[in-house]
User: Which sequence fits this backbone?
């Protein structure tokens, strides 16, 4: 658990959750925020998810190739 890459993965997943919650909150509330930032929040969420998935795959690859 003290692995630096694992901690970066946890931070990336938390970033995805924060962006997702902001996007859902803006969508639920509607109004000017959703009209102005709704699409940008979705794009940011997809980017954050892609980064998190790449980090997870890197972690699995490194651990599977004798990096233990």
Assistant:
């Amino acid at each position: 658990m003290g692995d630096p890459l694992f901690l970066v993965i946890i931070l990336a997943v938390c970033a995805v959750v924060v962006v997702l919650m902001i996007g859902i909150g803006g969508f639920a509330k509607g109004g000017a925020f959703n009209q102005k930032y709704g699409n940008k929040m979705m794009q940011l969420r997809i980017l954050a998810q892609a980064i998190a998935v790449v980090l997870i795959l890197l972690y699995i690859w490194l651990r599977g190739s004798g990096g233990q």
In short: The CA atoms of residues 42 and 58 lie 24 Å apart. The chain is about 90% helix and 0% strand. The mean pLDDT is 91. The helical segments are 4-29, 31-64.
